[in-house]
Every structure is written in C-alpha cells, then in structure tokens.
Amino acid sequence: MTTAEHDVRSLYLDLLRRNLTRFGMHEQMPSDWPLRRRLLLKTVNALTSVRRGTSPADQRTRELGLDWPPEAETMIGMQRLTSLQNCVETVLAEDIPGDLVETGVWRGGACILMRAVLAAHGDTARSVWLADSFQGVPRSDAVNYKADKGIRADLAAGILGVSEAEVRANFERYGLLDERVRFLPGWFKDTLHNAPIDRIAVLRLDGDLYESTIQALDALYPRLSSGGFCIVDDYLAVKACQQAVTDYRAKHGISALIVDIDGTGVLWRK
C-alpha cells in the first residue's frame, strides 16, 4: 500500500468516527429530549453514573462518551471508538481468525465502524454480528442475578430500545449494509449460545447488566481466538457489569491484563 492510499484510508475512518459520534458537530435535539433524559436519570440507577452529559454535548463529553446523543449513531465516544478501530486493525494485521461481534448495539455505530474498517482494509472474509433485543435492556432479574438489584435500565427503553429496521437504515446511510452484516435479534439468553458463529476475533460487550454480560461471556468468550480482543463497554461505570467480568475471569482462570480505555470501557487480549 502506498503512503497516499494509507492516508486516504485513515482520513475516511477518522471522518467516519467523527460523524458516528457527531464529535464537534451540532445536533438537532428532539423537543422532548431534555424532559425524557431528566426522567430517565431519576429512574435508571446504574446507568446514570456514566450517561450524565448534556445536549448539545461539549467535545470532552462526547470524546469520552458520557451522554445520550440525540442523533449520533453511537454513544461510546471518540476514545472507545478509536480503540475499537485499533483492535480490528490489529487482528487484521496479525491475521487473528474470526468475525467481529457486538452484544448490545444501540443505533449500530460501533458495528458500522467495524464494517467500515473491514471494507477499508479490503477484508472480504469476515462478518460483523449485531446481537441485540432491539427493544432495550431487559428488566433486571435480581432473583437469579443479585448484582442487578435496583437497576431499572428497562425504564430507558425509550432511548436504549432501537429497532432493527432503524439500525439497518443507519448502515445503509453509510453504504455499509450487505450480506456480511449479520443480525441476531432477541434476548441474549435465547440467541447467543446457538448463534452460528464459529470463531471471534473481536468481542465487544455492551449489555450493562450482570445478566447480559455474563450471558455473553458464557456463550461467546470460548469462541474468541487466541490473540483476539474482549472489550467491555461499561466495566468501570456499572458495578454489576464489572462483577460479571470478575466472576467469569475467576471461574475460568483468566489473568490477562485488563486495560482501561477511557475511564469507562476496558479491554484485554485472550
């Protein structure tokens, strides 16, 4: 690859990240957005610690992914999005086998970036998998998952619940919807164990709850290739999520170093 080709690819992916996050851009806020957000912040327990920004977001807030954007296709911010790109480019450069998977996709922005990285690097073999209920986060089951007690993320369905049709439309907007974008609609307990995914190179978990996190780890981590990345979006923001990761790693003797991405998300290599 020539220097000019590398520069064009880098510029394309940088522009894409900025647009997916609306970093430094003005967003058109729905008239009821401030009220919806205030009501949710009063009722959604664990998520409020991270989604505290205002709209329109200042650049620092959007860089760290600390708010609910009214228009952007992702809420994870520029730092986590850039880290995700680096993970995908690393597995491509090192030929780590497997597909790219996200559990909990919201408007699809992180998966749009992953598909764009594959396209920009000319990869024609891997797929991007989107696992989501497309209805929001399930109501906490504190009987079976005690760490989720008091978390009412289900009350945020008005913001967190994004339909599969809307996510598909977001992919189409960027010209990236094709047969290698694969959808797994439904609750994780019903979809992940039997998902037709053989190997995974990048596994990104964004389910918020202990239940969602442990179910994704149980079903998918064994398929993560050696050298692949496991990314946990809310590890440093939601204690229930962190506890699920701690329990899973302890049970399976995982000692790989956990790396802080931006004060919210973390990753490690298998």
Explained architecture:
This protein has 270 residues and is α/β, with parallel strands linked by helices. The protein has helices at 3-21, 33-43, 59-64, 77-93, 109-120, 157-160, 164-173, 188-191, 210-220, 239-251; strands at 99-103, 128-132, 181-185, 200-205, 224-232, 259-260, 266-269. Helices cover 40% and strands 13% of the residues. It is globular.
The major sheet is characterized as: 7 strands, mixed
Please tell me the CATH architecture by its name: 3-Layer(aba) Sandwich
CA-to-CA gap between the ends?
A: 29 Å
| Estimated helix fraction | 25-40%
The total strand number stands at: 7
CATH superfamily, by name, is Vaccinia Virus protein VP39
Low-confidence stretches: 42-56
What integer is the average pLDDT?
A: 88
Number of helices: 10
| CATH topology name | Rossmann fold
Approximately what portion of the residues adopt beta-strand conformation?
Answer: 5-15%
Number of structural domains? 1
**For the largest beta sheet, what order do the strands appear in spatially?**
3-2-1-4-5-7-6
Q: Cα-atom Rg, whole angstroms?
A: 18 Å
CATH class: Alpha Beta
| N-to-C series of helices and strands | HHHHEHEHHEHEHEHEE
Shape: globular
Class based on secondary structure composition and strand pairing: alpha/beta
Defining traits:
270 residues; alpha/beta; Rossmann fold
Fold topology:
Layout: H1 3-21, H2 33-43, H3 59-64, H4 77-93, E1 99-103, H5 109-120, E2 128-132, H6 157-160, H7 164-173, E3 181-185, H8 188-191, E4 200-205, H9 210-220, E5 224-232, H10 239-251, E6 259-260, E7 266-269
Parallel strand pairs: 1-2, 1-4, 2-3, 4-5
Antiparallel strand pairs: 5-7, 6-7
